[in-house]
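MODEL INPUT / OUTPUT PAIR
PAIR INDEX: 1
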Amino acid sequence: MRRMIKFPAINKLKFISDLFQISDRFRQMPPLAAPRHSAVAGMRLIFATVLVFFISYLLGVNFVIPLFLVCIFAYLKFFSRNYSLLNLSLLFVIIFVISYFVIQEGLPIFWIPFTVIPMLSAILFEELGLSLLITLASSISIAYLVGDIGSGLLFLISGILAIILIRGVRKRITIIRAGFIVGLAQAIALFFIDHFRIGYPQHYLMFILNGIVSGVIVIGILPVFEYLFKTVTNISLLELADFSQPLLQRMVLEAPGTYHHSLVVGNLSEAACLAVGANALLARIGAYYHDIGKLQKPQYFSENQEVKNSKHDTLSPTMSKLVIMNHVNEGLELAKKYRLNPRLIDFIQCHHGTSLVYYFYRHALESLEEDQEVREEGFRYPGPKPNTKETAVVLLADSVEAATKALKEPTPTDIKDVVHKIINNKFIDRQLDECDLTLKDLEKISAIFIRILSGIYHARITYPEGSVSSK
């Protein structure tokens, strides 16, 4: 593949770097007042557009490339909401700059680790359409730089294949395997582009190595981008599920009842999320950590107490309420201490929403004396309410598991009634207003909860004394 474009010498990189710093400061500028928010957003858009065109002018790149990028941004702006423009731009800039310098130095295009960006975007972002757009933008831009449409098609094919192979990845070896397959696909695509002639056999080997090396690079830099983008991937989630994690170890030893409760909530949440198309693994791991705040005072929570001896017997309803509600704040402090990912912290913060601590609220009303007033707002969690399907499912699973466990003699009918009652109450109490769960989703979730809880808490037959049973 031959080069068809001569690029100007780059002697203004420092100036471009300064422009990016100005752009970042401009992007971080907070709106001064609500009425001016749209004006500020418009100014940011105009500034970003001008900056892209100006950098293209400095680099000697035809304006068709920035025009193409602006069109893609406009599409994302109006038709997609699950993205961060800065994150997407960073990934594109990385591959564009690498490609620019590889071509500038006259190196073969197999030195460009192109599939790193499709792999990273597919792992980091939940919306695969974003990965496809980044791949499309990158391949077309590189094709223009190289001056050969065949190069762009080769990279586009390998990028799309990488996205397909990486989707839902949970093991690092899967990334290496995907890199090897993508490398083979690149070699085959090159064979087609060369009209079924093998002119330079070493080029085919280099493309195969390119795919493998790209997979290795992704494994190495993935933690860096998880930190930068403040997200968590399936690979990291599975590492957090390992019970060698300090917080989970503490729960086993210090709050075994809460630990068991979290396991059941995790299983319920995972099954429910699978039914409604949410991230099941994220919900399960989030459920494992949602109650870590109970480690501070585990004996004050029913699952860790002896039935006849409750710590709350000697406390006023108001004081008991403070102890119970404070486990959310204590969980947030522990999460920061152990540096949990922000997406897991959401489960700690949202798993009660603004729900009412009904037991102690009712107890406070019953012990009310004359000239006293008990405000319902004082017995509600501070929130926020769940704003994703995963956090909303954990909120529901947490409530139904605790309520089902409280049944003296659980029967399938009782469990069904409890599940429907809890979910209806959360819906009526508007705890689900800020998430995307539909009524149809709630029906699916309730069916899953009923089936699993009936299997866990079903009544058992009484065996004759002295008999041995494995059931």
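PAIR INDEX: 2
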Amino acid sequence: MLVCHCNKVSDRVIRECVDRGARSVEEVGRACGAGAACGGCRPTIRALVAGEPPDAGIVSLGRARAREQAPVPVPADALAS
């Protein structure tokens, strides 16, 4: 599965980096370039480093991820009505 679209890095390559000792997203990035551009794949890389499945509850939205989006603020006057 292609994880880092910017640098065309697959989950297999990332797992190989982890097998060789990478223990963080930054270390994976230094080893193979994954996560070093837009950052949209960093949650998936983080899951792979932790030994979780690459799709561990993460829905890809390109550069943003569903579980990482900030909540939409509600105007205070909308709460009063």
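PAIR 2 NOTE: The chain is about 35% helix and 10% strand.
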